[in-house]
Design brief:
Layout lengths: L5 E3 L7 E5 L5 H12 L5 E4 L5 H12 L4 E4 L2 E4 L8 E5 L4 H6 L1 H6 L3 E5 L2 H4 L4 H9 L4 E2 L8 E4 L7 E6 L4 H10 L7 E6 L5 H13 L5 E3 L2 E4 L8 E3 L8 H10 L1 E5 L13 H7 L3 E5 L2 E5 L8 E3 L7 H8 L6 E4 L11 H11 L3 E5 L2 E5 L6 E3 L5 H11 L5 E4 L11 H10 L1
Parallel strand pairs: 2-15, 3-14, 6-7, 10-11, 18-19, 22-23
Antiparallel strand pairs: 1-23, 3-5, 4-5, 7-9, 8-9, 11-13, 12-13, 15-17, 16-17, 19-21, 20-21
Bound molecules: shikimate-3-phosphate and phosphoenolpyruvate (PEP).
The site of shikimate-3-phosphate has 13 residues, from helix 3 and helix 7.
Amino acid sequence: MPAENSWTAPVAADKLDATVRVPGSKSITNRAYVLAALSAGPTLVREPLDSRDARLMLGALAALGASSEHTADGVRVQPLTDGDGEAAITLGNAGTVARFTPPLAALGSRTVHFDGDPAIRRRPLSPLLTALRELGADIDDGGRGAPPFTVRGRGGLAGGEIELDSSASSQFLSALLLAAPAFTVGVTVRLVGTVPSEPHIAMTLDMLRRFGAAPERNRREFHVPPATLSLDHYTVEPDLSTAAPFVVAPLLAGGSVRIAGWPRETTQPGDWLRSLVRELGAEVSLDDDGLRVTGTGRLPGATLDLHEVGELTPVVAALLCFADGPSRISGVAHLRGHETDRLAALATELTALGGDVTETEDGLRIRPVPLGGGVFHTYDDHRLVMAGAVLGLRVPGIEVENPATVGKTFPGFVDAWQRMLAG
Ligand SMILES: O=C(O)C1=C[C@@H](OP(=O)(O)O)[C@@H](O)[C@H](O)C1
Ligand SMILES: C=C(OP(=O)(O)O)C(=O)O
């Protein structure tokens, strides 16, 4: 009996033969919107993601005085305009909105109140708020170091030199770097501790350069001088992390899947999937038609450090449940501060289906054993919906709870998944 508000993830009856188009990258879309708002003139963001997180970002920018309009070609974002009075920003459970917009509020003169879903109140933020205060911001968080909090804009941010512990989320560092061209003296950030999600930092630096800034990096030290940003248009790549369940599907179902528009060069962490699935036995080719992945029936276990590509963990963990040997995932302790505690959620849900999955200090240990059907709880986490879909390819009766929560990054996911299976 299907659970209420659930989706029975379809089993792959035949080998796959499908072309899939995934929507624009969340990380690129929301960076493009922020940089566009900081620019001197309007920017057309082409092929952007339209999802909960992207809409939350546009809503936040509107509250800060940067209007936007959907046009036939994408979304045109106008520069931030200052104002006084009060404004409110709704964060949902979007890490990019919660981390990237407080510096923008500090650049203006409004008093801006931030809050969101219960889950965002539990996600790490305090190192960013502390850094912003050191750079000149007035922030009242009631000592919580988390939403709800209020930024009282003082009409600008001085900037300067700081040390930052960005080990709980790379987004603290990205947030400071993205806004830094507008700080009076720019910023110099010296990292203490390790930082996850290295490709997302490369993405931040690359996009800053495209908008006309001149960030410099010397290993753990970053410098962004003041700059006037400007870019007429920016085209967003397909989201390669959203593509993850489709990329791994042929390893479980056989046949081929082509992901249209896979870029030849990119800073996205999802590009690492090409080498992962090759290592796990698939045939992989990348050409002008996109990425083609063909299953070979082989699927060995693997030992993977996912520190740089943590957001891929739920889908990779689901895949490895079907390997022909044990696997170990490490380097992702920071996933405990993602949409939910992803390590606990994956261990709990996979164990409930009969799996042998245990949490370690910084990852998961997976011993493949036959799984059975049942409710797969998703904890309001889009990537758990995707992981549930992957499990369903091989296991009848996976009831993915609250599939609509995938709308954080891919509102059309369930339809696209069913189309892939229909060929
Ligand atoms: O900057 C970004 O766009 C992101 C950085 C990463 O965050 P963490 O470093 O907190 O894992 C990633 O997991 C998240 O999905 C998107
Ligand atoms: C961690 C993620 O999202 P956020 O941007 O909310 O941090 C994610 O998408 O996996």
